[in-house]
Amino acid sequence: MPKIRNLEDLRKVKESAKDLTAARSGGRTHIIVGMGTCGIAAGAREVMTAILAELEKRGIKDVAVETTGCIGMCQFEPLVDVIRPGEPRITYGNVSPEDVPRIVAEHLINGNVVADKVIGRTD
Ligand code: FES
Known about the structure:
With 123 residues, the chain is α+β, with helices and mostly antiparallel strands. The protein has helices at 7-24, 37-42, 44-58, 100-109; strands at 29-34, 63-68, 80-83, 89-92, 118-122. It has a five-stranded mixed sheet with strand order 2-1-3-4-5, with helices on one face. It is globular, with a radius of gyration of 16 Å. The structure holds FE2/S2 (inorganic) cluster. FE2/S2 (inorganic) cluster (FES) is lined by residues 36-38, 70, 72-74.
């Protein structure tokens, strides 16, 4: 790996890391639903059903929908992460089935994060 001497070098490293991440995700958007015990108790199954139904309704096929277990944030369940290739991972909290169409339309399709539901972001 080349030495980082200035901000421009750092930017280049960041860009190549982004490309790598995008390549690893197969260039697809990922939606990850927290399905730990507390997630399920808080309604994660209904949220998952709403996500699948919304994608189906809109004919969106290039999205990988996955589940994850407990991540230690019970109070924010149901949790839904959205990762668009080359963009930060956005974590939405206290997601209800009613929030799903807005997240799909705004974030997945238009690329605008639904700010009022965000509880975390990983660059
Ligand atoms: S059981 Fe709730 S975060 Fe683990």
